[in-house]
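Quick one before lunch.
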Amino acid sequence: MHNLLDNIQEILLMGPGPSSVPPSVSQAMAKPTIGHLDPYFIKIMDEIKERLRTVLNTGNELTIPMSGTGSAGMEAAFVNLIEKDDPVLIIKNGVFGTRMEDVAGRLGADVDTLEFEWGTPVRVDQVKAKLDHKKYAIVAVVHAETSTGVLNPVAEIGELLRGTETIYLVDAVTSLGGIEIRMDDWGIDALYSGTQKCLSCPPGLAPLSFSPKAVAKLEARKTKVPNWYLDLTLIMSYWKGASRAYHHTAPINMHYGLYQALQVILEEGLDAVYTRHLENHKLLVQGLADLGLDMLVEEQSRLPMLNSVKIPAGVDEAGIRSNLLTKHKIEIGAGLGPLAGKIWRIGLMGHTARPENVHRLLEALKQEIG
Ligand SMILES: *Cc1c(COP(=O)(O)O)cnc(C)c1O
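Model of the pyridoxal-5'-phosphate complex:
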């Protein structure tokens, strides 16, 4: 019988995710599957929690990977924290802020939005003005907006909310493992991420962390969490305590992958990892400038791990992306929404952020743009 898996080619993943996976993570995922209540697996779970706390700079007890991709993390954060008619502010400047608005709205929240032009960062003075005239149960923002390449001022927004009753919810899907996150220092109450961006693990888990304040809001709910699968009040009885109760079968081998991905990052050292992302970003931006290509985002708000490049007039953007993939075995991303056809999105996420990859892409682009 034929087998399509025999012909999968290795592609250098320089798009908006997934990123290229280091061999040690792939090998970890190929280890023998053991039971989800096996005491040895529970040891692995406990160390994953500890390692996630380290990379997030948090002491939050409720820090676990949710089963599912980054969007499951988003859904989990909102579904556990929102009760019907809760006033929620979504600060948005791209696709993922817009997705937050959709998720919160479906849960019956009373959603306000504060929108900024795609490609520009959130302006803290405007957030302050918004917060000055209304009290919100939850304020949510995306740290690294993968659809545009913009870094949002998460710490500064946290400062505005300090000492209030508002829950501060942050999407760290693309930022985790690429730029520093100080969850406790920045006053973040609920945060979620995903495995396939800067953690360089295949897609499948969504690290999530809730502060004691977020846990208190969860425990004070008047109604059940409206989604059984993502209900943290149930899931915590599997992730904590002496006797672990079955809720759903943990995706065992995905957890091996995440464990190893965190091992790789912590062995390199968090500061070294962030510096490597920044240096490769600078190398890429310089190389693109040498090819006559400009960046979408102004310098002080650029993400190192997601680089939005303006497509020059007369260039066949889809054709070049297709040639990069078929001829050069490199994947880059297209623009989304209002930026479709206007930008390419070049990822330097996790394991992918290396000079040899930057040079390989620049060489290929040079050939294709001519
Ligand atoms: C990728 C991404 C998500 C969604 O994650 P999936 O793994 O695709 O479900 C959410 N937020 C941001 C900022 C992302 O980059």
